[in-house]
Design a protein that fits this description.
- With about 180 residues, this protein is an alpha/beta fold.
- It has a single domain, classed as Rossmann fold (3-Layer(aba) Sandwich), CATH 3.40.50.300.
- It has a five-stranded parallel sheet with strand order 2-3-1-4-5, sandwiched between helices.
């Protein structure tokens, strides 16, 4: 297991399609740490897909559940955690992220241009927030609401628009060493 200087977890935040899952898996592999995807943990706990939770229970229910899951996950150490894109929308979740930072987690905001995000997610039918007549407008709207929260929650930010998974992984490893 590679050591990260005074870091016990790496938490990846950012909008859908910025690479949190792919980069998280690569970082965990490189560090010899566990990889946790908070959305997958929610699906395991509930037995429902994220899309079904949004449809049947609503976004508010999902966000509360997301807070509970991320709090549970961040009690452990030596993990790379990929969060859902909206984790920063709830005060409780932002507080949990901040408390985790105080205990040694590094929160890294992965971001990308709107066009790159659209290219990466346009064919994914499992994105409930994009089930709208004008998904680009929805992406722009959500980014305008969330970017400030991402910025304040993060220790570091990386634009993934023109980087490979390997390049992003190397940047993160350098940041935490």
């Amino acid at each position: 297991m590679l050591q990260a200087k005074n870091v016990n977890n790496i938490v990846l935040i950012g909008f859908m399609g910025v690479g949190k899952t792919a980069v998280g898996k690569a970082c965990a592999c490189k560090l010899g740490w566990s990889f946790i995807d908070s959305d997958l943990e929610i699906e395991k706990l509930t037995g429902c897909s994220i899309a079904d939770l949004f449809k049947n229970k609503g976004e508010d229910y999902f966000r509360q559940l997301e807070s509970e899951i991320i709090e549970r996950i961040l009690r452990q150490s030596y993990q790379v955690v990929a969060t859902g894109g909206g984790i920063v929308t709830l005060n409780k979740s932002r507080r949990i992220l901040n408390e985790s930072r105080l205990r040694g987690s590094k929160v890294i905001w992965l971001q990308a241009s709107t066009d790159v995000i659209w290219q990466r997610v346009k064919n994914n039918t499992k994105r409930p927030l994009l089930n709208t007549p004008d998904p680009m407008a929805k992406i722009n709207h959500l980014l305008s609401k969330r970017n400030e929260f991402y910025q304040f929650a993060a220790d570091y930010e990386i634009d993934t628009s023109e980087l490979t998974i390997g390049e992003i992984t190397e940047k993160i490893i350098k940041l935490v060493r």
